[in-house]
Amino acid sequence: MANIDMTGCTPTLGQIPYAGLNKVYVLRNVVDLTADAIVENDVYQCLAIPADTLVMNVKVEIITAAVGTTLTMDIGDGSGVDSWDADVNGKGTAGTFTHSIVGTDAYAVAAAQGTFYDAADSIDVVMDVATAITAGPKFAISALCIDYN
């Protein structure tokens, strides 16, 4: 049995295109809504996803909890309002993380490793249920991405 190298380079040159355009990176944004009025079904476009990008995971960290009775947020994009994560607790304790999970969230299940965006889009946060919210949350949202450009 033979080993046939189809990678296009020898092991001494490495397999990762360090000088190439294919990169793994994290997009991150801190969204501060503590001074804003929260309205149900408002859509906050939080992360701009370039065309030809594989998003492998989306994660939300509560930095400051919303003040009020109930706040649930859906994480999605232009194709599905809660495809990355549904019913994130906007009143969660500071430091609480939530993320897309393979086996439960639509995009994490799609390829068992994320979703490919062939056209530019955005990762959005939709205020799903907002009851008596007097101050919105402050949260960080991040996406693990691979650039295929």
Helix content: under 10%
Please tell me the total number of domains: 1
Shape: elongated
Major sheet details: 5 strands, antiparallel
Question: What would you note in describing this structure?
Answer:
It is built from one helix and nine strands. The chain has 149 residues and is mainly beta. The longest helix is centred in the last third of the chain and has 5 residues. It has one domain: Jelly Rolls. Strands 1, 3, 6, 7 and 9 form a five-stranded antiparallel β-sheet that branches. Strands 2-8-4-5 form a four-stranded antiparallel β-sheet.
Can you summarize this structure?
3% of the residues lie in helices and 50% in strands. It is mostly beta strands and 149 residues long.
Keywords:
50% strand; 1 helix; mainly beta; 149 residues; single chain; four-stranded antiparallel sheet; five-stranded antiparallel sheet; elongated; Jelly Rolls; disordered N terminus
What secondary-structure arrangement, pairings included, does this model have?
Elements: E1 23-32, E2 43-49, E3 53-64, E4 70-77, E5 80-89, E6 97-99, H1 106-110, E7 115-117, E8 121-131, E9 138-147
Antiparallel strand pairs: 1-9, 2-8, 3-6, 3-7, 3-9, 4-5, 4-8
